[in-house]
């Protein structure tokens, strides 16, 4: 989408002070210090879905800090957005907060739940791949024939289809999607492979089929071509164009080429005081800029993309040279003009469903929560046969937060940070997602019963021996918790309603239609966030912010 550059001393509105809006404001304030930036946020805090809940355990001199991540918690090591985040934190003198996990760290072991064999390690080498196939019971004649026949199956149509339909077409069986791919999708968008789009979620697989007639033949051809291309890739090729411009105009000392090589060693990055440290640091910086203004608890009732105007609940209207929004499809539909020019956009927005996630953080001072033989990042749950009986608890996955924390080291010094105590364990359970769209959302008390059942079913916790302390985090202002003993289990829960958009079949068309209509109308609107931004991850939001700021420059 082409965007007009902002006139001298112009005005830009940023709707949403999540990581998307903050990043855009950060880059734009650096590129165009003359531009006035008004940030409108409906809550009284910044960060959006990134929320590191800071609790205090014990009292007086015995007080210890306990952080529960309520949303994203780690960043992929290798991605343009992560390079930007690391460099911004360095610029803001927060580099000491950055921690990394090495490839060989125990925390980098990932697991998947198998219907018959329990928690199994996800393969990280060719050898462990075959071990996994055998152990998981996936290695059956259906899959073997499916893989052998794949190179010879007819190429399908270029149009969009569901992930399930694509895999079934290519392999003649649903065994891979039911047992593996669905688990990965649960861990990324909490969505169902029966509806998620292959063109959006796995564009490279579809491309391999279209270009080479087969995924396997395409992979072999690509591997052969990249072998021939030799090892030494030019440093510039490691750094996308937008990042080269970032280095040129914003951070000349960033050395992103070197940083990109060094970050390849780390599959995961986190911040020692919680991921909210990133939006909080950017906010701290922006709040000091004369031309940047934050408007909290703002209530927007109308947005006109052609006029560049925003109307508020108190009937006041403000006009801007550009508006960037990270609002959800539902909110956007409500505030767009009521004229027929927006009918097609509204139909596209209505085609994008959202899912809710019941997120449960659990802490105990004893190390009992994580199974002895399964230390690592956590485990994901596949949809298996897809009916309610195969996953009656509607569990999507479990993250072993304390393993990640205990195995991370400070990026610059490789030192470990002090922990709340050595023996503690902390995990996060994620439940619901697409299942909540098919079945209704259980009450909190029903969900907590399910959580206790899950602790006993998968994590060998004898729930009768423990005292449970429950916190409905959204309703509690007091963040102080008394001293916890070895027999206490603290459970803090939140229902994140409609938190993740689903990139279902037709999503790319819905996005193109919307952007096309807005372009024809000469609109002054651009998108951040997960609706029509660059993707669902935190690094995607930051690189999208940079791309837009460069266009508005
Ligand atoms: C709050 C729930 C979220 C779920 N997925 C995301 C969020 C914010 C976004 C997301 N998670 C991952 C990716 C891919 C890698 C990346 O781009 O960073 C994305 C886009 C991987 C991932 N999945 C889980 C974790 C902890 C991570 C690492 C990144 C992060 O901290 O978010 C676990 C997990 N996430 C979700 C579920 C249901 C789940 C299950 C255990 C939904």
TrEMBL record:
<dbReference type="InterPro" id="IPR002937">
    <property type="entry name" value="Amino_oxidase"/>
</dbReference>
<feature type="domain" description="Amine oxidase">
    <location>
        <begin position="19"/>
        <end position="377"/>
    </location>
</feature>
<keyword id="KW-0274">FAD</keyword>
<dbReference type="InterPro" id="IPR050464">
    <property type="entry name" value="Zeta_carotene_desat/Oxidored"/>
</dbReference>
<comment type="similarity">
    <text>Belongs to the protoporphyrinogen/coproporphyrinogen oxidase family. Protoporphyrinogen oxidase subfamily.</text>
</comment>
<keyword id="KW-0560">Oxidoreductase</keyword>
<protein>
    <recommendedName>
        <fullName>Protoporphyrinogen oxidase</fullName>
        <ecNumber>1.3.3.4</ecNumber>
    </recommendedName>
</protein>
<dbReference type="InterPro" id="IPR036188">
    <property type="entry name" value="FAD/NAD-bd_sf"/>
</dbReference>
<dbReference type="GO" id="GO:0006782">
    <property type="term" value="P:protoporphyrinogen IX biosynthetic process"/>
</dbReference>
<keyword id="KW-0285">Flavoprotein</keyword>
<keyword id="KW-0627">Porphyrin biosynthesis</keyword>
<dbReference type="Pfam" id="PF01593">
    <property type="entry name" value="Amino_oxidase"/>
</dbReference>
<dbReference type="GO" id="GO:0005743">
    <property type="term" value="C:mitochondrial inner membrane"/>
</dbReference>
<comment type="pathway">
    <text>Porphyrin-containing compound metabolism; protoporphyrin-IX biosynthesis; protoporphyrin-IX from protoporphyrinogen-IX: step 1/1.</text>
</comment>
<dbReference type="InterPro" id="IPR004572">
    <property type="entry name" value="Protoporphyrinogen_oxidase"/>
</dbReference>
<dbReference type="GO" id="GO:0004729">
    <property type="term" value="F:oxygen-dependent protoporphyrinogen oxidase activity"/>
</dbReference>
<comment type="function">
    <text>Catalyzes the 6-electron oxidation of protoporphyrinogen-IX to form protoporphyrin-IX.</text>
</comment>
<keyword id="KW-0350">Heme biosynthesis</keyword>
């Amino acid at each position: 989408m082409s965007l007009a550059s902002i006139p001298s001393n112009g005005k830009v509105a940023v709707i949403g002070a999540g990581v998307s809006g903050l990043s855009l404001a950060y880059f734009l304030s650096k590129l165009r210090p003359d531009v006035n930036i008004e940030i409108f946020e409906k809550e009284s805090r910044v960060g959006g879905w990134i929320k590191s809940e800071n609790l205090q355990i014990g009292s007086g001199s015995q007080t210890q800090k306990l952080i529960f991540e309520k949303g994203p918690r780690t960043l992929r090591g290798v991605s343009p957005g992560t390079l930007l985040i690391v460099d911004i934190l360095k610029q803001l003198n927060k580099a000491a907060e950055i921690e990394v996990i090495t490839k060989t760290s125990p925390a980098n072991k990932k697991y998947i739940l198998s219907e018959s064999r329990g928690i199994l390690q996800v393969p990280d080498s060719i050898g462990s791949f075959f071990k996994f196939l055998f152990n998981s019971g996936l290695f059956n004649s259906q899959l073997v024939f499916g893989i052998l026949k794949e190179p010879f199956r007819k190429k399908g149509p270029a149009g969009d289809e569901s992930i399930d339909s694509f895999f079934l077409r290519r392999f003649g069986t649903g065994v891979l999607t039911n047992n593996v791919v669905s688990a990965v999708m649960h861990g990324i968008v909490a969505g169902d492979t029966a509806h998620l789009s292959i063109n959006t979620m796995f564009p490279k697989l579809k491309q391999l089929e279209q270009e080479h007639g087969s995924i396997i033949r395409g992979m072999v051809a690509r591997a052969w071509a990249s072998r021939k291309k030799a090892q030494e890739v030019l440093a510039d090729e490691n750094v996308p164009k937008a990042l080269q411009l970032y280095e040129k105009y914003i951070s000349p000392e960033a050395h992103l080429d070197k940083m990109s090589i060094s970050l390849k060693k780390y599959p995961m990055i986190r911040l020692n005081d919680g991921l909210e440290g990133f939006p909080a640091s950017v906010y701290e910086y922006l709040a000091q800029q004369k031309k940047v203004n934050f408007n909290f608890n703002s209530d927007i009732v109308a947005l006109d993309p052609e006029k560049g105007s925003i109307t508020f609940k108190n009937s006041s209207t403000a006009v801007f040279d550009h508006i960037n929004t990270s609002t959800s499809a539902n909110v956007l539909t409500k505030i767009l003009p009521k004229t027929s020019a927006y009918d097609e956009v509204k139909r596209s927005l209505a085609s994008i469903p959202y899912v809710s996630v019941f997120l449960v953080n659990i802490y105990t001072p004893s190390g009992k929560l994580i199974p002895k033989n399964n230390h690592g990042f956590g485990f994901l749950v596949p949809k298996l046969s897809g009916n309610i009986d195969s996953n009656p608890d509607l569990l999507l996955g479990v993250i072993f937060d304390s393993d990640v924390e205990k195995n991370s080291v400070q990026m610059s010094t490789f030192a470990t940070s002090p922990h709340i105590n050595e023996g503690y364990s902390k995990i996060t359970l994620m439940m619901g997602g697409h299942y909540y769209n098919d079945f209704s959302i259980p009450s909190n008390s029903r969900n907590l019963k399910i959580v206790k059942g899950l602790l006993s079913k998968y994590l060998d916790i004898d729930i009768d021996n423990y005292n449970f302390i429950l916190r409905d985090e959204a309703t509690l202002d007091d963040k102080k918790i008394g001293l916890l003993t070895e027999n206490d289990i603290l459970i803090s829960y939140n229902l994140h309603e409609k938190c993740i958009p689903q990139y279902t079949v037709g999503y790319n068309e819905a996005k193109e239609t919307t952007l096309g209509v807005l372009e024809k109308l000469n609109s002054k609107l651009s998108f951040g966030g997960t609706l029509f931004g660059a993707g669902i991850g935190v690094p995607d939001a930051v690189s999208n912010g940079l791309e837009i700021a460069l266009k508005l420059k």
